[in-house]
């Protein structure tokens, strides 16, 4: 018999991830398809459904003066 694949809903998966810099929680931003770290003020991109949790790839959320 073939085993059934267990799938985890995307939102549930995102809730398990943390920011690699601050180790704080990430919030999913569907409009920009990013994971937001409020503590580190970074937005991590999601490409082809895969979160790119590299600080070098993240967009800064700091306001420019």
CATH class designation = Mainly Beta
* Portion in helices: 10-25%
Tally of discrete structural domains: 1
Q: What integer is the average pLDDT?
A: 86
Order of secondary-structure elements: HEEEEE
| Total number of helices | 1
Low-confidence stretches: none
CATH architecture: Single Sheet
Largest sheet: 5 strands, antiparallel
CATH topology: N-terminal domain of TfIIb
By secondary-structure content and strand pairing, the structural class works out as alpha+beta
Strand content: 25-35%
Radius of gyration: 14 Å
According to DSSP, the number of beta strands is 5
N-to-C span: 62 Å
Overall geometry comes to globular
What would you note in describing this structure?
With 65 residues, this protein is α+β, with helices and mostly antiparallel strands. It has one domain: N-terminal domain of TfIIb (Single Sheet). Helices cover 11% and strands 26% of the residues. The chain contains one helix and five strands. The protein has one helix spanning 10-16, and strands at 27-29, 34-37, 42-47, 50-51, 59-60. Strands 1, 2, 3, 4 and 5 form a five-stranded antiparallel sheet that branches. A hairpin with a 4-residue loop joins strand 1 and strand 2 (34-37). The protein starts with 9 loop residues before the first helix and ends in a 5-residue tail after the last strand.
